[in-house]
Amino acid sequence: MAQVLMKDLNKKYDEVHAVKDVNLNIRDKEFVVLVGPSGCGKSTTLRMVAGLEEITAGQIVIGDRVVNDLPPKDRDIAMVFQNYALYPHMTVYDNMAFGLKMRKFPKAEIQKRVHDAAEILGIQELLKRKPRQLSGGQRQRVAVGRAIVRHPQVFLFDEPLSNLDAKLRVQMRVELKRLHDRLETTAIYVTHDQVEAMTLGDRVVVMRDGWIQQVGEPLELYGRPANKFVAGFIGSPAMNFIDVTIANGATLRADAPGLNVVIPPARVDRLRPYKGQRITLGIRPEDLHVATGADARDSSVDAVVDVVEPLGSEILLDVKVGPTVVVARVDPSIRVKVHEPLRLALDSERLHFFDPKSELAI
After folding, report:
1. Is residue 353 within a helix (H) or strand (E), and if so which, with residue range?
2. Are 276 and 245 in contact, with CB atoms under 8 Å apart?
3. Rounded to an integer, what distance in angstroms lies between the CA atom of residue 226 and that of residue 354?
4. Do residues 84 and 106 lie in contact, with contact meaning Cβ atoms separated by under 8 Å?
């Protein structure tokens, strides 16, 4: 396998600057996920690694080779696409063997590689079928199998699960994770689904408007987002944001209509320069719970229930805190009604604060 190094990578389409100064070192055997909204540059970055898009500026190194000017077939990569890209007139076996036949591999070697990949993916009984006889999940396994037989240095996945239904996506996520652990292959995976990114990636790269916003392990992005965009993108349901004023009394506080929170001691030095100014407070839905008598008043939110969403294992509450609607994830045993007043407690140690201009974490 091999590491993949991107140095000052840029891509322009006439006036559109799609990828901007991307610097990323993907380690050998690492599973890295590029995630972000549509148009953020993640698929374009992947296609430049594959050789399907010309690089405007910068450098891509796979292993110890600069591959900028190499055609895709010479980069020793294998790509799995969103739409499977199977030949409809060929059997599953022939689809998986096609690339090896084009490279003049011996027949016995082709047969061994195809059957080994089919066993890994559990599709041995499908080898004689045509793509039209397969379900979406089976077609995706065939597409992955076609990549496996190549024994490439790097696997590239371009939103491979987006055409599957929700239940099958969860199943295929688990299978891809097991597959990576078994093959120990360097992999770059593109998705717009942050849950997919969090569950699959050894590290996650969050992109926006062509720029890398943050690179880190999934729980690092969740617990210590670099800016407001990452904080809002990572986590489901998304983080709540409330405009607050930093007020100084006996203690430093964050104030807003319906909300009055004492700043925890560990944050006081960072937030004191914002005294008298408005900043953005971030609260994750799972860090809000229905207050009891034991909860301190200085870590509470006065709210009115707007929408109740029972999900079985949890309840999501849309509540109004002053003029702002926030989401709370609460225990399913809680019984609340729409328009009912509610006091929510929060863990002040788990709050996030963002500069209103730069949107960077404070």
Report:
1. strand 352-354
2. yes
3. 9
4. no
Under 8 Å between Cβ of 61 and 5: yes
What does the mean pLDDT of the chain come to? 92
Distance of CA 233 to the CA centre of its chain: 8
Helix axes 107-121, 136-148, angle to 10 degrees: 140
Q: Is the pLDDT of residue 243 over 70?
A: yes
312 in Cβ contact with 349 (< 8 Å): no
Residue range 72-90, pLDDT digits in tens: 989 999 999 888 889 999 9
With contact defined as beta carbons under 8 Å apart, do 290 and 345 qualify?
yes
CB 122 within 8 Å of CB 179: no
Helix or strand run (H / E) with residue 221? helix 218-223
Task: Give residue 209's pLDDT.
Answer: 97
Nearest CA to 188 among 201, 175, 173, 207?
201
Q: Tens digit of pLDDT for each residue in 118-134?
A: 998 889 999 999 999 99
Q: Quote the CA–CA distance of 164 and 175 in Å, as a whole number.
A: 14
Position 42, amino acid: K
Tell me the CA distances in angstroms from 352 to 241, 281, 319, 362, one per residue in order: 9, 6, 19, 8
* Positive or negative: CA dihedral 44, 48, 49, 51: positive
Residue 121 near residue 113 (C-beta atoms within 8 A): no
* Strand pairing category for 65-66 and 77-80: unpaired
* List of residues 6+ apart from 139 with CB closer than 8 A: 84, 86, 131
Which residues on adjacent β-strands are paired with residue 26? Answer: 4
What DSSP state is assigned to residue 174?
A: H
Closest CA to 229 of 42, 44, 354, 326: 354
Residue 5: strand pairing partners: 25, 61
pLDDT for position 297: 61
